[in-house]
Amino acid sequence: MAITKISLNREILRLAVPNIISNLTVPLLGMADFALMGHLKTDSVVYVGAVALGTTIFNVLYMSLGFLRMGTSGFTAQSYGAKDKNALHLGLYRSLLVALLLAFALIVLQYPIQWIAFKLLDGSAQVTHFARQYFYIRIYAAPATLMLYSFYGWYLGMQNARIPMAIAIVVNSVNIGLNFLFVYAFYMHSNGVALASVLAQYTGLMMAFWFLLKKYKIFAKRIALKILLKKEGLLIFFKVNGDIFIRTLLLIFVLTFFTGMSARISNKILAVNTLLFQFFFFFSYFADGFAFAGEALSGKAKGSGNILLLKKTVNKLFIWGLSIAVLTGLIYFFGLKYFMYVLTDNVNILHLAKEYYGWVVILPLTSIAAFVWDGIYVGVTAAKAMRNTMILSAVIVFLPAFYLLFPHFGNHGLWLALEIFMISRGLSMWAIARKAVYLH
Question: How far apart are CA 226 and CA 211, in angstroms?
């Protein structure tokens, strides 16, 4: 039993740590993008705004299509646990095909997409002009970006987190290097940042195929299109991923609603909430590492039919997750006021932010269960249950909580509604776990 516990902990860390490292490369790229634009000698504010708007559009687009990674991860992990090589082969290529078709749709529909996006974002004429240029360049990275989602999910389902980590590090390193080249050597400004993203994504895609040929050659063989397009397999694929898509849209809605309501209160509150929320994103990079480990390990246990191992895996994941949440909460409790100085030197914002520190300190504790359960539910492909708990938490819990609390407590009410939303997600998934996870 002791050896089993040690090996299970080792497996969790083997998968979680590379994913955490991969996650941490993302904000470094964002900082590099904005730092380059922010230090231009002319119109730096315009170019920063253009990159910000363009990045926001793609963040929403790609986050909403994140089911490609999650669904592929769950299906693959279960096939891996069941030692079904045919399903592993078929699952990868079916996911890649869907990714390619979705990317093609984005490119074909780029004009209506950008028109709707810029109507909603409502930037100044000059910023919007450069943001559109950014959009029209970066949209051609869609095939590489979405196919990489499929590869990331497949490699994770194969219990391999090191390959996605290696790809993420190279992609972001190439992206940053090309940023400097295009901006400083070729004077391309925001267009250079967009082109760097495109080339970096295709570099990552070539790496993904190279690893497939190098490490998993048995799965690199061709497969007939008619097999990929079999009705039964596609129906299961789209049913699971459709539920994950709805769940993700609702999550985007809640986060967007939080930002929108912050803006309605005042510009200062918007600035304060945006800055404080960066600490939640920072925590999420660590929490997601364990969620991704949960996808791989719970899927493998489910696929092998070992429910006892699945239960042990869930317990261990929660021990690790709660440990990270408590540690993060303590760090924020003692150090948040110092960390804020890194983000801003505006005295008014720093003074106002102090009122809301408590919400950031407890947010890791109120949200960790949702992160861990998300990974487990993805691993066992309990997508319908994920969707239903998100509908409950976003529509039936979050919105009424906000409209009841906000008139009396203002921004504190907004933060409390968000905390209640996170708690609701964790509790609702826990409440139906026996049926959704263990008997699914």
Answer: 26
Residue 3 pLDDT greater than 70, yes or no: no
Question: Of 215, 156, 218, which is closest to residue 11 (Cα–Cα)?
Answer: 156
pLDDT of 136 > 90? The answer is yes
DSSP codes joined into one string, 101-117: HHHHHHHHTHHHHHHHH
The Cα 130–Cα 101 span in angstroms is 28
Q: Residue 398 has what pLDDT?
A: 98
Query: What residues have CB less than 8 Å from 390, skipping those under 6 apart?
Result: 246, 247, 250, 251, 425
Q: How many residues does the chain have?
A: 440
Residue 42, SS3 per DSSP: coil
At 4 the pLDDT is: 60
> What is the structure's pLDDT at 359?
97
Q: E-strand spans in 151-241? A: none
Give Cα separations from 94 to 14, 100, 150 (angstroms): 27, 10, 9
Maximum separation of any 2 CA atoms in the chain, in Å = 65
Q: What is the distance between the alpha carbons of residues 324 and 318, in angstroms, rounded to a whole number?
A: 10
Q: Same structural domain for residues 211 and 279?
A: no
Q: How far apart are CA 223 and CA 218, in angstroms?
A: 12
Query: Quick check: pTM over 0.85?
Result: yes
Alpha helices (H) along 109-141:
110-121, 125-138
- The H helix count followed by the E strand count for the chain is 19, 0
Alpha-carbon separation of residue 173 from 32, 191, 192, 282 (angstroms): 10, 18, 15, 20
In a shared domain, residues 47 and 169: yes
CB 99 within 8 A of CB 128: no
pLDDT of residue 306: 93
Last residue within a domain, chosen from 229, 261, 283: 229
pLDDT in tens, 231-273: 888 888 889 999 999 999 999 999 989 988 988 888 888 888 8
Into how many domains does the chain fold?
2
